[in-house]
Structure formats: structure tokens, C-alpha cells
Design goal:
The structure is a single chain. The chain has 226 residues and is an alpha+beta fold. The protein is 46% helix and 21% strand. It is built from six helices and eight strands. The strands form two sheets. The chain has a six-stranded mixed beta sheet with strand order 2-4-5-7-6-8, covered by helices on one side. A two-stranded antiparallel sheet has the order 1-3. About 3% of the residues have low confidence.
């Protein structure tokens, strides 16, 4: 499966646009809270708005630092414990709860980024109050990682499904589609397969070494060697 071509400058611009979109809401809420405090100093509700919105903005930025950025370092590896902490902070302000299991280890930077980006896709697949779980089953030499979105109704983002199955897109990758695109681009750069199995109550995203599974996929499974 080939992903659409997106130039490096365009990819950087689209990811920057997504980051701005993600943090504009909490930052705007901070501004609104401060304006209310100008009118009503020491107002408890305004203080709480500023406090919670600031925490949300910080959590989103810390998450984006690993999921989309260089993590502030040129090092080739990232501590999965740091990635887990960033994911937990991010998910406190998102629709689903997060459960994470598996060994803590230093991994290639793009492995950590791939897991976090799959968390974003899984979070978008379920209604508020449901659960996203991450299970790091194996790392080197043959990674196997499962990210599960549990809850109904399931709505796996259409652009992710289209890109994963190799369907042609109706329009070029834009700021709304760049995150699913980037997720699969990371997998391709790592030489890993991503599969999606959608059941009655869960969508399961599995990352494994290319060609690790040779069994025929069921009809409700989408798989791609990216």
C-alpha cells in the first residue's frame, strides 16, 4: 500500500496547523478566564477555568512534543515511560479513559510516536466515557503492540481507514487528515504492518513486524504493509 505523496514542507505545515488547532481551544479558554478575572477579581469559577484550561494546554503540548515533534532532543531513542506519561496527561482531557500495560524500555523514537498517534486515532473512534488501552506485548527484535478502542458506537476515522486500505482519497491530505496520514507514515518508515480489526464493541489496531501474520484476514479486518 502506497501513501499519497506529501512533501516535507507541506507535512511540517500541516502538522503545525493541527497542533495549533489542538491547543487553540484551551488557550482561548485561558484568555476568556483572565478577561473575566479582570472584571471580577478572585472569582472562583474564573480561576478554575484558567487553571483547568492551562493544564489542558500543557498536557496537549507535552503530548505533541513526543507524538509529532523531535521531543526536544536529537537522540534516537525515547523512554516509553515518558511516552506513557504524556499519553495519560493528554487523555485526562479527552473523550476516553486510558489503560497502558507492558514493559518500560527505551525504544526507537518513531515507535513511541507511532503508539501515541494510534492512541489519537483510537480516542477518535469511541464516544466520550469509553476506554482506549495500549498493550506493549513485545519490542525488539519484532515489535508487537496493540491499541484497543472499546465502546459503542464505533467510528474509526474514515480517512484513517481509507489510507490503511489504500483507497484513493477524494482530496489531498489536509490538516484534518494529516494525523492519520502521519500515523501510517511512521509505520512505513519503521517497516511495520498496521492492521485494524473492527468487532461489535471494539476496534483493535495492531502493530507488528512486516509479514509476521500470514493467516487470511477476516472480512472486518483491514491490513496494510506500510
Amino acid at each position: 500500500m502506497l501513501l499519497p505523496d506529501v512533501s516535507a514542507p507541506d507535512l511540517a505545515a500541516l502538522l503545525a496547523s493541527k497542533l495549533c488547532h489542538d491547543i487553540i481551544s484551551p488557550v482561548g479558554a485561558v484568555q476568556s478566564g483572565l478577561e473575566l478575572l479582570d472584571e471580577m477579581p478572585n472569582d472562583a469559577e474564573s480561576m478554575e477555568l484558567v487553571r483547568n484550561s492551562t493544564k489542558s494546554a500543557v498536557a496537549k503540548l507535552q503530548f505533541a512534543r513526543i507524538a509529532y515533534g523531535a521531543s526536544g532532543s536529537s537522540a534516537a531513542q525515547i523512554d516509553l515511560g515518558d511516552a506513557r506519561q504524556a499519553a495519560e496527561g493528554f487523555m485526562k482531557f479527552e473523550r476516553a479513559t486510558l489503560a497502558w500495560s507492558g514493559e518500560r524500555a527505551y525504544v526507537a523514537k518513531n515507535i513511541a510516536k507511532l503508539i501515541l498517534n494510534l492512541v489519537v486515532v483510537a480516542n477518535a473512534s469511541v464516544p466520550r466515557g469509553r476506554e482506549v488501552s495500549v498493550e506493549v506485548e513485545a519490542l525488539a527484535p519484532s515489535p508487537r503492540i496493540t491499541v484497543r478502542a472499546t465502546g459503542t458506537p464505533l467510528r474509526v476515522p474514515a480517512k484513517f481507514r481509507a489510507l490503511l486500505s489504500g483507497e484513493p482519497l477524494d482530496e489531498p491530505v489536509d490538516a484534518h487528515g494529516v494525523q492519520p496520514y502521519y500515523t501510517l507514515l511512521l509505520a512505513r518508515e519503521l517497516g511495520l504492518d498496521v492492521t485494524l480489526d473492527i468487532g461489535a464493541e471494539a476496534a483493535v489496531f495492531t502493530v507488528s513486524a512486516a509479514g509476521a501474520s500470514t493467516e487470511a484476514a477476516p472480512q472486518d479486518e483491514i491490513s496494510a504493509g506500510v
